[in-house]
Amino acid sequence: MAVEEQNRTVTGVGLEAKLGVYISVPFCRSKCSFCNFASGVSSAAAVEAYVTRLCREIATAPGRAAELRVQLPRLVDTVYLGGGTPSLLSPGQLRRIFSALREIFEVAGDAEITLEAAPGQIGDALLDEALNQGVNRISLGVQSFVDRESAAVGRSHTGSGCVEEVQRLRRAGIRDLGADLIAGLPYQTEASWQCSLRVATGIGLTHLSVYMLEVDEDSRLGREALVGGSRFHAHALPSDEVTATLYESACEWLPTQGFAQYEISNFAVPEHLSRHNCKYWLRAPYIGFGLDAHSMLLREEQATEATDGGFRRALRFANPEELAPYQDGACSSPFRMAASSGASVTEIGRSEAFEEAIFLGLRMNQGVSPARIGEDFSADMLASAECAAGELMREGLMVDQDGRWRLTLRGRLLFNEVFTRLLIGVAA
Ligand code: SF4
What we know:
Elements: H1 3-8, E1 19-25, H2 44-59, H3 61-68, E2 75-83, H4 91-104, E3 106-117, H5 124-132, E4 137-143, H6 147-152, H7 159-171, E5 176-183, H8 190-201, E6 207-212, H9 220-226, H10 240-253, E7 260-263, E8 266-268, H11 275-282, E9 286-289, E10 294-298, H12 305-308, E11 314-318, H13 323-328, H14 334-341, E12 344-348, H15 350-363, H16 370-376, H17 379-394, E13 398-401, E14 404-407, H18 409-413, H19 415-427
Parallel strand pairs: 1-2, 1-9, 2-3, 3-4, 4-5, 5-6
Antiparallel strand pairs: 6-8, 7-8, 10-11, 11-12, 13-14
The structure holds iron/sulfur cluster.
Iron/sulfur cluster (SF4) binds at residues 28, 31-32, 35, 37, 39, 83-85, 118, 141.
């Protein structure tokens, strides 16, 4: 299936009735130097207490939804256990989480159920339990198949160990296997990046996520690089220009190997897109449980074509980023939790929904349909965005193809600038 053909199959139609569930398991065996996620190393007792808290949060979800006046579909068609390293859970803990979920929700027989895992950190017993619970997709945090690069950022696995892990998981019956790769790691060169890409595309993986390393205050490596230090191998980071080149080369080369790009950071062989992650970009409802987990649920009362266009009114809310307030929080009320612990609740009305439709839609290679946006929002909003879009097309950052606005490769690299200019056009 060609790239465009594959992408055309991804629509938000009918997704309102089904829920995506994200479960955050924020524990790792050690902390990677580049990591800016809310994750860390904790004791076995802390993990056990967290699972108890998580199950209680799942049990109270219908009450929370009623209080917020949002729809909570009972039918779940995607579950994603992310982190952190969910593969470090014990089989009993994994079982408890799925039991809590099935008490409240109906997990569809054909649901996509993903477990994030670190290579070499999925015990046989946990893998058996995952299969028992219906896990059919595993996403491995590889980052690089080159040993020197993995070791530099604190990863304990080797490239050959990752290949063996993929073979083991396939033998165990997991057919949907993905890996994350990072462009811009210390010591990375165009040759070593090509080596990682070649291994990744030659071992039967079905999905690849390619991220550019973020150098910012939120990670130890980023902080060191910003002050010009050399701890954490910060002196060996490639330049921003080289990192951008590595990303571009992945965007150009992976499709030639059968991995179609369908989103800024995501590539898949046909029929193996991440259905769960597509919900985020298509503004379909999902609920997150656990530390720093985010949710978007549709309002009970929706805008209608006759009154206010057809956009989806929604509420976004997030759990605390710190373990202590999450662990202590009164999760029966997101509003109380928001007031006391840094969690957030955001109403998504017409202008926010418009921004999201552009921002999230353009992340996908299939782009956005201005005609559809014009129907869902006001003609004025569309006209202003059209003006900015015309300029961006003349500059080669966007194209209008088959009636859809899409980013070019350069536009994907400068995504934030593109998005800002589209919205400034609307606000002006
Ligand atoms: S395993 Fe993943 S979540 Fe854990 S520290 Fe490393 S990058 Fe962060």
